[in-house]
Amino acid sequence: MTHAPINATDPAADDPAQGLRHDLVASLQEEGWVHDPRVAEALAAVPRHRFVPDAALETAYARETVSIKDDSAGASLSCASKPAIVAMMLHQADLAPGQRVLELGAGSGYNAALLSHLTAPGGQVTTIDVDPDLAEHARTHLADAGYGHVRVLCGDGASGHPDGGPFDRIVATVGAFDVPPAWLDQLTPSGRLVVPVRLAGDASRSIALTPAEGYWRGVDVQMCTFMPLRHSSAADPRRVLDLTGDDAVTLWANQDQDIQPESVRDIFTDKRTTTWTGVVFGNNESFGDLWLWLALTLDNSLSRMPVAGAATEAGGVEPMLRWGSMATTAPSGQRGLAYMTLRPTGDRHELGVIGHGAQGAALAERMAREITHWSQHYRTREPTVDLHPRPHLPPEPEPGRFILTRPSAHLVVTWRQQPPL
Ligand SMILES: C[S@@+](CC[C@H](N)C(=O)[O-])C[C@H]1O[C@@H](n2cnc3c(N)ncnc32)[C@H](O)[C@@H]1O
Asked: How many other C-beta atoms can be found within 10 angstroms of the C-beta atom of residue 387?
């Protein structure tokens, strides 16, 4: 892929932040995260480090999130998102000068500054955070970086900003499970909503939605994971269960999953079985669509299972990736867990499933069957996601089409089946 050059000329040798910013944008272009020259220019212009002043310069311009507020247990309550995800969502928003934009989840204020840059001249950006400290943080740092004209409000983003609309774009940088009607109602007739939606279990997608006849069409769907809405009418709380008694292996449990802590506690000491699938993945192939398929088809969906390096080295757990694996659990009251693993085959890897507990073998076999089914029938197709506001009825479910009913809307995830080989 060819990339447009960054419009920031030779980075000043005496401005290390500008040099780091230039390198960051170049690496994002190189990997295809940035392909619109206007987005490249905005990322090269907005000083990310001014929005995360407690971080070292190298940290501010690394490819990772930068946390700006943690809870008492050390979990992040707010962060500047990964630059690649920021860039991806700016592309999804399809911004133009003069637009009025509402952002939900002000956080550091960095993305609001980018939105402002991309809608200048003549645009107007409003951003909302539920946390007064964070709203103040964003306001201060936006002013400090020269974006004092961005409006920062404190409140529940799920309500949008009824007095400020209509907006050409509404961009949520906080995860939602339902899509609050306020967001759709506050858009202009040709507006666009960009929202990271948790579809099922741990499977989330950032979806760009535009109005179609009687529904909202997902015109772009990308992998992402965001911290959920909190203190909100649309809150999406998540529990983190300790599987090993020392937090070496944990399991994320979401509101659409029925997971009792006692049915998975110390599960790795229970009887183990391994089922190999014959499904192989290349080194750079994404597991994202497979995980979404499993999250939608398994009875208790799919959970993130982070595994500390020490637990892997001790040998009791063999996760598929360095950070951990994805797992499913037995229905309430029954003991069982199954998670994905890999073994080398030539220069690729074969997927397997390791089960533990009374239901472990059955769960592993079920997961393995779904992996094979997805690989045979859906692997070459990317899923689409549309939204049908209630009380409108969604299309009927069929093979490869899943209807996810939320309080405000039906989300329709569709894999068009590939023709027989
Ligand atoms: C990933 S951060 C947003 C990143 C931000 N856009 C930036 O550029 O730094 C998510 C933010 O959503 C905020 N948030 C959580 N629940 C919210 C709610 N109900 N309404 C508005 N903001 C909320 C959090 O406080 C947090 O600051």
From this structure: 25
Rounded distance from Cα 110 to ligand 1 centre (Å):
12
Token pair belonging to 4? 């447009």
Residue 81 has which token pair? 């998102």
pLDDT for res 4: 42
Catalytic pick among 27, 67, 78, 204 = 78
Which atom number of ligand 1 is nearest to the Cα of residue 112? 8
What is residue 130's predicted lDDT score, i.e. its pLDDT? 98
Burial of 214 (0-12, 13-18, 19+ CB in 10 A): exposed
- Give distance in angstroms: CA of 254 to centre of ligand 1: 19
To the query of whether residue 204 is one of the catalytic residues in this protein, the response is no
Q: What is the dihedral of CA 162, 166, 168, 172, to 10 degrees?
A: 10
Instruction: Report d(CA 338, CA 395) in Å as an integer.
Output: 32
Q: Residue 14: its pLDDT value, please? A: 64
Query: Would you list the domain boundaries of the chain?
Result: 238-377
pLDDT of residue 416: 75
Which residue reads 């982070």 in tokens? 306
Q: d(Cα 356, Cα 264) in Å, to the nearest integer?
A: 9
Partners of 419 in the β-ladder: none
The pairing of beta strand 167-172 with beta strand 100-104:
parallel
CA 58 to chain centre: 24
CB 229 within 8 A of CB 198: no
7 SS3 class: coil
Spell out, as residue ranges, where the chain has pLDDT lower than 70: 1-14, 417-421
Match 């693993």 to its residue by tokens.
Answer: 341
